[in-house]
Amino acid sequence: EKGNYRHFMEKEIHDQPDSCRNTLSAYLDPIAGKAHAPGGFDFTAIDRIQIVACGTASYAGQIGRYLFERLAGLPVDVEIASEFRYRDPAVAKGTLAVAVSQSGETADTLAALRWCKDKGLTTAAIVNAHQSTMAREADVMWPTHAGPEIGVASTKAFTAQVSVLTALAVAAAAQRGRIDAAQEAALVAHLLEAPRLLAESLHVEDAIHAIAPEIAKARDVLYLGRGPMYPLALEGALKLKEISYIHAEGYAAGELKHGPIALVDEQTPVIVIAPTDDFFEKTVSNMSEVIARGGRVILITDAQGAAHAPEGARVITAPTCDPVIAPLVMAASIQLLAYHVAVIKGADVDQPRNLAKSVTVE
Ligand code: M6R
Q1: Which one, 32, 92, 117, 354, has the greatest CB density within 10 A?
Q2: How far, in Å, is the centroid of ligand 1 from the Cα of 290?
Q3: Does the keyword Transmembrane belong to this entry (predicted)?
Protein backbone atom coordinates (compact mmCIF):
# COMPACT_ATOMS: atom_id res chain seq x y z
CA GLU A 1 0.00 0.00 0.00
CA LYS A 2 1.10 3.53 -0.82
CA GLY A 3 -0.23 5.05 2.40
CA ASN A 4 0.03 8.82 2.23
CA TYR A 5 2.45 8.77 -0.67
CA ARG A 6 1.50 9.62 -4.22
CA HIS A 7 3.59 6.89 -5.77
CA PHE A 8 5.16 3.62 -4.72
CA MET A 9 8.54 5.02 -5.69
CA GLU A 10 8.12 7.91 -3.26
CA LYS A 11 7.07 5.50 -0.51
CA GLU A 12 9.94 3.14 -1.26
CA ILE A 13 12.46 5.99 -1.13
CA HIS A 14 11.12 6.83 2.33
CA ASP A 15 11.11 3.15 3.35
CA GLN A 16 14.89 3.04 3.07
CA PRO A 17 15.86 3.73 6.68
CA ASP A 18 13.76 0.69 7.66
CA SER A 19 14.74 -1.54 4.75
CA CYS A 20 18.42 -0.73 5.31
CA ARG A 21 18.09 -1.46 9.05
CA ASN A 22 16.23 -4.73 8.45
CA THR A 23 18.80 -5.84 5.92
CA LEU A 24 21.82 -4.95 8.03
CA SER A 25 20.41 -6.68 11.10
CA ALA A 26 20.89 -10.01 9.31
CA TYR A 27 24.58 -9.26 8.72
CA LEU A 28 25.77 -7.35 11.78
CA ASP A 29 26.15 -8.19 15.43
CA PRO A 30 25.97 -4.81 17.19
CA ILE A 31 26.99 -6.18 20.59
CA ALA A 32 30.08 -8.04 19.39
CA GLY A 33 30.83 -5.38 16.76
CA LYS A 34 31.13 -8.01 14.06
CA ALA A 35 29.90 -8.56 10.51
CA HIS A 36 29.04 -11.97 9.09
CA ALA A 37 27.28 -13.68 6.21
CA PRO A 38 24.01 -15.25 7.36
CA GLY A 39 24.68 -18.98 7.68
CA GLY A 40 28.41 -18.28 7.58
CA PHE A 41 30.76 -18.07 4.64
CA ASP A 42 34.51 -18.61 4.45
CA PHE A 43 35.99 -15.64 2.57
CA THR A 44 39.49 -17.06 3.07
CA ALA A 45 38.56 -19.95 0.75
CA ILE A 46 38.15 -17.70 -2.31
CA ASP A 47 40.69 -15.71 -4.33
CA ARG A 48 38.42 -13.35 -6.22
CA ILE A 49 34.82 -12.36 -6.81
CA GLN A 50 32.92 -12.08 -10.07
CA ILE A 51 29.75 -10.03 -9.74
CA VAL A 52 27.09 -10.34 -12.45
CA ALA A 53 23.97 -8.19 -12.55
CA CYS A 54 21.86 -5.87 -14.71
CA GLY A 55 20.89 -2.22 -14.39
CA THR A 56 20.71 -0.80 -10.91
CA ALA A 57 21.87 -4.07 -9.35
CA SER A 58 25.07 -3.85 -11.42
CA TYR A 59 25.74 -0.37 -9.99
CA ALA A 60 25.31 -1.77 -6.49
CA GLY A 61 27.85 -4.40 -7.54
CA GLN A 62 30.27 -1.72 -8.70
CA ILE A 63 30.03 0.00 -5.32
CA GLY A 64 30.64 -3.40 -3.71
CA ARG A 65 33.81 -3.78 -5.73
CA TYR A 66 35.39 -0.68 -4.14
CA LEU A 67 34.57 -1.98 -0.68
CA PHE A 68 35.76 -5.55 -1.19
CA GLU A 69 39.00 -4.42 -2.79
CA ARG A 70 39.72 -1.61 -0.37
CA LEU A 71 38.72 -3.34 2.86
CA ALA A 72 39.34 -7.01 2.14
CA GLY A 73 41.98 -6.86 -0.59
CA LEU A 74 39.85 -9.25 -2.64
CA PRO A 75 39.98 -8.67 -6.39
CA VAL A 76 36.49 -8.12 -7.80
CA ASP A 77 35.22 -7.98 -11.35
CA VAL A 78 31.77 -6.61 -12.05
CA GLU A 79 30.10 -7.21 -15.36
CA ILE A 80 26.72 -6.64 -16.87
CA ALA A 81 25.21 -10.13 -17.10
CA SER A 82 24.10 -9.80 -20.75
CA GLU A 83 27.72 -9.24 -21.80
CA PHE A 84 29.27 -11.74 -19.40
CA ARG A 85 27.08 -14.64 -20.48
CA TYR A 86 27.96 -14.42 -24.16
CA ARG A 87 31.64 -13.63 -24.18
CA ASP A 88 33.22 -16.85 -22.94
CA PRO A 89 34.84 -15.22 -19.95
CA ALA A 90 38.02 -16.79 -18.59
CA VAL A 91 37.16 -17.29 -14.95
CA ALA A 92 39.83 -18.49 -12.55
CA LYS A 93 39.29 -21.35 -10.12
CA GLY A 94 38.72 -19.96 -6.65
CA THR A 95 36.35 -17.31 -7.98
CA LEU A 96 33.12 -16.76 -6.10
CA ALA A 97 30.36 -15.79 -8.55
CA VAL A 98 27.84 -13.36 -7.05
CA ALA A 99 24.58 -12.51 -8.79
CA VAL A 100 22.90 -9.34 -7.53
CA SER A 101 19.19 -9.07 -8.30
CA GLN A 102 16.09 -7.62 -6.71
CA SER A 103 13.73 -10.07 -8.43
CA GLY A 104 16.05 -13.07 -8.61
CA GLU A 105 14.48 -13.76 -12.00
CA THR A 106 16.29 -11.48 -14.47
CA ALA A 107 17.01 -13.69 -17.48
CA ASP A 108 20.55 -12.53 -18.20
CA THR A 109 21.65 -12.57 -14.57
CA LEU A 110 20.20 -16.04 -14.08
CA ALA A 111 21.93 -17.32 -17.22
CA ALA A 112 25.26 -15.86 -16.05
CA LEU A 113 24.81 -17.47 -12.64
CA ARG A 114 24.05 -20.85 -14.23
CA TRP A 115 27.05 -20.50 -16.51
CA CYS A 116 29.30 -19.96 -13.49
CA LYS A 117 27.78 -22.95 -11.72
CA ASP A 118 28.40 -25.13 -14.78
CA LYS A 119 32.03 -24.07 -14.69
CA GLY A 120 32.25 -25.41 -11.16
CA LEU A 121 32.42 -22.06 -9.38
CA THR A 122 30.80 -21.48 -6.02
CA THR A 123 27.80 -19.23 -6.58
CA ALA A 124 25.99 -16.76 -4.36
CA ALA A 125 22.89 -14.67 -5.00
CA ILE A 126 22.09 -11.37 -3.29
CA VAL A 127 18.34 -11.29 -3.83
CA ASN A 128 15.30 -9.51 -2.48
CA ALA A 129 12.83 -12.20 -3.63
CA HIS A 130 13.86 -15.01 -1.33
CA GLN A 131 11.83 -17.69 -3.15
CA SER A 132 13.13 -16.75 -6.59
CA THR A 133 14.95 -18.96 -9.07
CA MET A 134 18.33 -17.40 -8.27
CA ALA A 135 17.69 -17.85 -4.54
CA ARG A 136 17.02 -21.54 -5.15
CA GLU A 137 19.81 -22.23 -7.59
CA ALA A 138 22.74 -20.42 -6.03
CA ASP A 139 24.89 -22.33 -3.55
CA VAL A 140 24.52 -19.47 -1.09
CA MET A 141 21.62 -17.02 -0.73
CA TRP A 142 22.37 -13.65 0.80
CA PRO A 143 19.02 -11.93 1.32
CA THR A 144 18.20 -8.27 1.17
CA HIS A 145 15.25 -7.42 3.41
CA ALA A 146 13.86 -4.48 1.46
CA GLY A 147 10.34 -5.91 1.37
CA PRO A 148 8.34 -5.92 -1.87
CA GLU A 149 9.49 -3.25 -4.31
CA ILE A 150 6.63 -2.17 -6.59
CA GLY A 151 8.05 0.89 -8.37
CA VAL A 152 9.73 -0.10 -11.62
CA ALA A 153 12.60 2.23 -10.75
CA SER A 154 14.59 0.43 -8.10
CA THR A 155 15.34 2.40 -4.93
CA LYS A 156 15.16 0.52 -1.65
CA ALA A 157 16.37 -2.72 -3.24
CA PHE A 158 19.47 -0.83 -4.40
CA THR A 159 20.38 0.52 -0.95
CA ALA A 160 19.67 -2.91 0.54
CA GLN A 161 22.07 -4.49 -1.98
CA VAL A 162 24.73 -1.89 -1.13
CA SER A 163 24.13 -2.59 2.59
CA VAL A 164 24.70 -6.32 2.11
CA LEU A 165 27.81 -5.83 0.00
CA THR A 166 29.27 -3.39 2.53
CA ALA A 167 28.62 -5.72 5.47
CA LEU A 168 30.08 -8.69 3.58
CA ALA A 169 33.16 -6.67 2.63
CA VAL A 170 33.72 -5.95 6.33
CA ALA A 171 33.21 -9.65 7.18
CA ALA A 172 35.67 -10.64 4.45
CA ALA A 173 38.22 -8.07 5.61
CA ALA A 174 38.07 -9.41 9.17
CA GLN A 175 38.30 -13.07 8.13
CA ARG A 176 41.22 -12.37 5.83
CA GLY A 177 43.11 -10.56 8.57
CA ARG A 178 43.03 -7.20 6.79
CA ILE A 179 41.45 -5.47 9.77
CA ASP A 180 41.68 -6.20 13.49
CA ALA A 181 38.75 -6.56 15.90
CA ALA A 182 38.79 -2.86 16.81
CA GLN A 183 38.73 -1.80 13.16
CA GLU A 184 35.92 -4.23 12.45
CA ALA A 185 33.93 -2.87 15.40
CA ALA A 186 34.47 0.69 14.13
CA LEU A 187 33.25 -0.21 10.64
CA VAL A 188 30.24 -2.04 12.05
CA ALA A 189 29.45 1.03 14.17
CA HIS A 190 29.52 3.20 11.03
CA LEU A 191 27.23 0.76 9.22
CA LEU A 192 24.81 0.78 12.13
CA GLU A 193 24.57 4.56 11.71
CA ALA A 194 23.44 4.18 8.09
CA PRO A 195 19.67 3.84 8.69
CA ARG A 196 19.53 6.98 10.84
CA LEU A 197 21.65 8.98 8.39
CA LEU A 198 19.58 7.71 5.49
CA ALA A 199 16.50 9.04 7.30
CA GLU A 200 18.24 12.36 7.80
CA SER A 201 19.29 12.44 4.16
CA LEU A 202 15.63 12.45 3.11
CA HIS A 203 15.51 16.04 4.39
CA VAL A 204 17.33 17.14 1.23
CA GLU A 205 13.87 17.05 -0.33
CA ASP A 206 13.40 20.82 0.25
CA ALA A 207 16.61 21.65 -1.60
CA ILE A 208 15.60 19.21 -4.36
CA HIS A 209 12.23 20.95 -4.78
CA ALA A 210 14.12 24.15 -5.53
CA ILE A 211 16.29 22.56 -8.22
CA ALA A 212 13.93 20.03 -9.85
CA PRO A 213 12.02 22.51 -12.08
CA GLU A 214 15.26 23.53 -13.74
CA ILE A 215 16.32 19.93 -14.32
CA ALA A 216 12.86 19.17 -15.72
CA LYS A 217 13.53 21.70 -18.50
CA ALA A 218 16.88 20.22 -19.50
CA ARG A 219 17.34 18.06 -22.57
CA ASP A 220 20.53 16.43 -21.28
CA VAL A 221 21.98 16.04 -17.80
CA LEU A 222 25.46 14.89 -16.82
CA TYR A 223 26.20 13.08 -13.55
CA LEU A 224 29.78 12.95 -12.29
CA GLY A 225 31.46 11.11 -9.42
CA ARG A 226 34.74 9.50 -8.43
CA GLY A 227 35.42 6.27 -6.56
CA PRO A 228 32.22 4.73 -5.23
CA MET A 229 30.38 7.88 -6.27
CA TYR A 230 31.06 7.00 -9.90
CA PRO A 231 28.63 4.05 -9.90
CA LEU A 232 26.24 6.25 -7.95
CA ALA A 233 26.50 8.81 -10.78
CA LEU A 234 25.60 6.02 -13.23
CA GLU A 235 22.66 5.10 -11.03
CA GLY A 236 21.53 8.74 -10.81
CA ALA A 237 21.58 9.02 -14.59
CA LEU A 238 19.66 5.74 -14.98
CA LYS A 239 16.99 6.86 -12.49
CA LEU A 240 16.47 10.14 -14.34
CA LYS A 241 16.32 8.45 -17.76
CA GLU A 242 13.90 5.78 -16.61
CA ILE A 243 11.23 7.91 -15.03
CA SER A 244 11.57 11.42 -16.47
CA TYR A 245 12.70 10.47 -20.01
CA ILE A 246 15.44 13.08 -19.90
CA HIS A 247 18.67 11.97 -21.48
CA ALA A 248 21.31 11.61 -18.78
CA GLU A 249 24.84 10.23 -18.69
CA GLY A 250 26.93 9.20 -15.73
CA TYR A 251 30.67 9.70 -16.04
CA ALA A 252 33.73 9.19 -13.91
CA ALA A 253 34.66 12.79 -13.05
CA GLY A 254 38.22 12.16 -14.22
CA GLU A 255 36.93 11.30 -17.70
CA LEU A 256 35.40 14.74 -18.14
CA LYS A 257 38.34 16.07 -20.11
CA HIS A 258 38.39 13.02 -22.36
CA GLY A 259 35.17 13.91 -24.10
CA PRO A 260 32.06 14.84 -22.16
CA ILE A 261 33.28 18.35 -21.32
CA ALA A 262 32.45 19.18 -24.95
CA LEU A 263 28.79 18.85 -23.96
CA VAL A 264 29.00 21.47 -21.23
CA ASP A 265 26.98 24.60 -21.92
CA GLU A 266 24.44 26.79 -20.07
CA GLN A 267 21.66 24.35 -20.93
CA THR A 268 23.19 21.17 -19.53
CA PRO A 269 23.03 20.73 -15.76
CA VAL A 270 26.01 18.86 -14.33
CA ILE A 271 25.21 16.99 -11.14
CA VAL A 272 28.30 16.19 -9.12
CA ILE A 273 28.18 13.69 -6.25
CA ALA A 274 31.14 14.39 -3.99
CA PRO A 275 31.08 13.85 -0.24
CA THR A 276 34.20 14.70 1.73
CA ASP A 277 36.58 11.82 0.98
CA ASP A 278 39.98 11.16 -0.59
CA PHE A 279 38.63 12.19 -3.99
CA PHE A 280 36.96 15.47 -3.03
CA GLU A 281 39.74 17.89 -4.03
CA LYS A 282 40.08 16.32 -7.46
CA THR A 283 36.36 16.53 -8.06
CA VAL A 284 36.35 20.21 -7.03
CA SER A 285 38.78 20.95 -9.83
CA ASN A 286 36.48 19.14 -12.28
CA MET A 287 33.59 21.29 -11.08
CA SER A 288 35.63 24.46 -11.54
CA GLU A 289 36.36 23.41 -15.12
CA VAL A 290 32.65 23.01 -15.78
CA ILE A 291 31.80 26.37 -14.20
CA ALA A 292 34.57 28.11 -16.14
CA ARG A 293 32.89 26.92 -19.33
CA GLY A 294 29.52 28.34 -18.38
CA GLY A 295 28.17 25.03 -17.07
CA ARG A 296 25.66 24.82 -14.25
CA VAL A 297 26.92 22.64 -11.40
CA ILE A 298 24.70 21.10 -8.76
CA LEU A 299 26.86 19.58 -6.06
CA ILE A 300 25.52 16.84 -3.80
CA THR A 301 27.84 16.74 -0.80
CA ASP A 302 28.06 17.01 3.01
CA ALA A 303 28.48 20.10 5.23
CA GLN A 304 32.26 20.21 4.89
CA GLY A 305 32.01 19.74 1.13
CA ALA A 306 29.43 22.52 0.99
CA ALA A 307 31.88 24.85 2.75
CA HIS A 308 34.51 24.07 0.09
CA ALA A 309 32.23 24.13 -2.94
CA PRO A 310 33.57 26.19 -5.83
CA GLU A 311 31.90 29.53 -6.39
CA GLY A 312 28.96 29.20 -8.73
CA ALA A 313 28.01 25.66 -7.69
CA ARG A 314 24.60 25.15 -6.15
CA VAL A 315 24.69 22.74 -3.26
CA ILE A 316 22.48 19.98 -1.91
CA THR A 317 23.78 19.18 1.56
CA ALA A 318 23.35 15.59 2.72
CA PRO A 319 24.38 14.44 6.22
CA THR A 320 28.04 14.02 7.10
CA CYS A 321 29.04 10.36 7.38
CA ASP A 322 31.96 7.98 7.23
CA PRO A 323 33.02 7.24 3.63
CA VAL A 324 32.15 3.55 4.05
CA ILE A 325 28.42 4.41 4.19
CA ALA A 326 28.50 7.45 1.89
CA PRO A 327 26.99 5.53 -1.09
CA LEU A 328 23.95 4.73 1.09
CA VAL A 329 23.59 8.23 2.47
CA MET A 330 24.08 9.98 -0.89
CA ALA A 331 21.70 7.63 -2.75
CA ALA A 332 18.54 9.29 -1.46
CA SER A 333 19.44 12.62 -3.09
CA ILE A 334 19.72 11.22 -6.60
CA GLN A 335 16.56 9.17 -6.16
CA LEU A 336 14.54 12.14 -4.89
CA LEU A 337 15.85 14.34 -7.67
CA ALA A 338 14.75 11.88 -10.36
CA TYR A 339 11.42 11.42 -8.61
CA HIS A 340 10.55 15.11 -8.34
CA VAL A 341 11.65 15.85 -11.89
CA ALA A 342 9.40 13.05 -13.16
CA VAL A 343 6.46 14.37 -11.11
CA ILE A 344 6.95 17.86 -12.55
CA LYS A 345 6.97 16.36 -16.03
CA GLY A 346 3.75 14.51 -15.26
CA ALA A 347 5.33 11.15 -16.04
CA ASP A 348 3.93 7.85 -14.82
CA VAL A 349 6.52 7.36 -12.11
CA ASP A 350 5.67 3.82 -11.06
CA GLN A 351 5.06 2.48 -14.58
CA PRO A 352 7.53 4.18 -16.89
CA ARG A 353 6.90 3.62 -20.58
CA ASN A 354 8.45 0.56 -22.21
CA LEU A 355 9.81 -0.82 -18.94
CA ALA A 356 8.97 -3.96 -16.99
CA LYS A 357 9.76 -4.47 -13.32
CA SER A 358 11.44 -7.74 -14.00
CA VAL A 359 13.12 -8.56 -17.32
CA THR A 360 12.61 -12.29 -17.59
CA VAL A 361 13.16 -12.52 -21.33
CA GLU A 362 16.27 -11.35 -23.12
O1 M6R B 1 15.45 -7.67 -10.56
P2 M6R B 1 16.83 -7.22 -10.93
O3 M6R B 1 17.51 -6.51 -9.80
O4 M6R B 1 17.69 -8.33 -11.46
O5 M6R B 1 16.64 -6.16 -12.08
C6 M6R B 1 17.74 -5.62 -12.73
C7 M6R B 1 17.35 -4.44 -13.58
O8 M6R B 1 16.39 -4.81 -14.54
C9 M6R B 1 16.80 -3.30 -12.74
O10 M6R B 1 17.68 -2.89 -11.74
C11 M6R B 1 16.46 -2.10 -13.63
O12 M6R B 1 17.63 -1.52 -14.12
C13 M6R B 1 15.60 -1.11 -12.85
N14 M6R B 1 14.49 -0.68 -13.63
C15 M6R B 1 16.39 0.08 -12.36
O16 M6R B 1 15.62 1.06 -11.77
Answers
A1: 117
A2: 31
A3: no
How confident is the model over 146-199, as pLDDT tens digits? 999 999 899 999 999 999 999 999 999 999 999 999 999 999 999 999 999 999
| Mean pLDDT over each residue of the chain, to the nearest integer | 95
> Quick one: average pLDDT of 76-98?
95
Which residue in 34, 323, 37 sits closest to 180, CA to CA?
34
* Residue 124, ligand 1, Cβ within 6 A: no
Query: By C-alpha distance, which of 82, 100, 256, 254 is closest to 164?
Result: 100
- Report DSSP state, residue 33: T
pLDDT of residue 33: 98
- CB of residue 50 inside a 6 A radius of ligand 1: no
Active site residues: 357
* ipTM score over 0.90, yes or no: yes
Instruction: Report residue 57 CA to chain centroid gap.
Output: 8
352 has a pLDDT exceeding 90 = no
C-beta of 233 in contact with ligand 1 (< 6 A)? no
> How far, in Å, is the centroid of ligand 1 from the Cα of 134?
14
- Whether 139 and 118 have beta carbons less than 8 Å apart is answered as no
Answer yes or no: is pLDDT of 353 > 90. no
Contact between 286 and 313 under an 8 Å Cβ cutoff? The reply is: no
Distance of CA 228 to the CA centre of its chain: 8
Q: What is the C-alpha separation between 236 and 222, in angstroms, rounded? A: 9
Ligand 1 touching residue 151 (CB < 6 A): no
Question: Rounded to the nearest 5°, which phi and psi values hold at 352?
Answer: -60, 150
Longest dimension (CA), the chain: 55
Mutate which of 56, 108, 351 for ligand 1 pocket (most atoms within 8 A of beta carbon): 56
